[in-house]
Amino acid sequence: MNTTTDSSHEALRAAMVDRIKAAGHARTAAVEQALREVPRHRFVPATQLTDAYANQAVITKRAADGAALSCASVPTVVAMMLDQLDVQPGHRILEIGAGTGYNAALLATLTGPTGHVTTVDIDPEVTAGARAGLGVTGFADVEVITADGSLGAPDNAPYDRIIVTVGAFDIPPAWREQLAPGGRLVVPLRWRGQTRSVAFVRDDDLLRSDSVKLCGFVPMIGQDSERSAHLDDDEQVTLYWDADQDIDPELLHGVLSTPKTEVWSEVTVGDSEPFDGVWLRMTATEPATCRIAAGQTAVDSGVCTPAIPSRSPALAEGDSLAYFTYRRVDPDQSGGARAELGAIGHGQAGERLARKLSDQIRAWGTNRTGEPVVIAYSGEHPVEGLVINKRWTELIIES
């Protein structure tokens, strides 16, 4: 329980915001001030005060198997998404996923007394907790609704801004319909094994992104369109792919026991340099892009050595596979550690797939900060190019 004095939680909150600013978020004075004002610890009363202001998610509800069902999101991610949302005074805002109520309090601070915030969650226990937190912190005017978030909140529509604080595999029609023309939708959207916080702007029935950032969120209940299968008998390595992809797990089982081919890109990165842009680029051009995850036993034994064991991009085709990896190389001139990016292939087409993946790394290496544009169509219009098909949406990624 976070019993404390005013001065101690204020100091911790100030330090939290300073870390957020140092990470490049809270870019406007309004977002920074909201983060400095709203007491995060009041929304997670069962959490130690230092944990309430640490740069980590606070899990507030778990399933029987231990999986997180609801949480207060990582503060840097909260700030990043608020930057993307660009709330202005007087805006009408819809939040999908009530969480602890903390995010809704920030939104209410940003939109001010002339605006309105509605937050929706399907879990009555979650909405009760959010409503209580908002009440004791002076944000009782936020409207908390227990309902299926995929249906939005039509009674208060249209909205100038919609923000989704749960991981979504698709964009339901209600979100698009309830968003005002020119309005912004910020959603942690999952495709091809990775999740990105995408800021869309509505242009008639089309949604076009102007910001795409890496993130991770608790998945939205009832929206999961991801498939998975173990690639080995020891169940140490798992492949994840989307429902619209033609991947046969039976053909791939045991592929890691076949001879491997290593293809190196000559692209190097420093220890703190992100390389997630490779994965994003792959989703724009390679229909076979998916995710691989390896347990520590598989990594230590050399059976499967992805660059990030828990989540790395891969290409799967028939009975063949290639995945993203790296190896240590000589330090740079300042003595800093560096790694070369590459790919490891298995199966009959493993070498070809590894070369394709390595080509993607080289292309990314020439423009490491480039950000593709994500276009979401309603599915009612013919779309050309590489299409990612979802239930309600067709995605085009323009690299």
TrEMBL record:
Signal sequence coordinates: none
A Pfam family the protein falls into: PCMT
GO CC entries: cytoplasm
Keyword S-adenosyl-L-methionine attached: yes
Highest taxon in the source lineage: Bacteria
Enzyme Commission number(s) from the entry: 2.1.1.77
InterPro entries: Methyltran_FxLD, PCMT, SAM-dependent_MTases_sf
Gene Ontology BP annotations: methylation
Entry's localization field: Cytoplasm
Record-level Gene Ontology MF annotations: protein-L-isoaspartate (D-aspartate) O-methyltransferase activity
Protein name per UniProt: Protein-L-isoaspartate O-methyltransferase
Taxonomic path: Bacteria, Bacillati, Actinomycetota, Actinomycetes, Pseudonocardiales
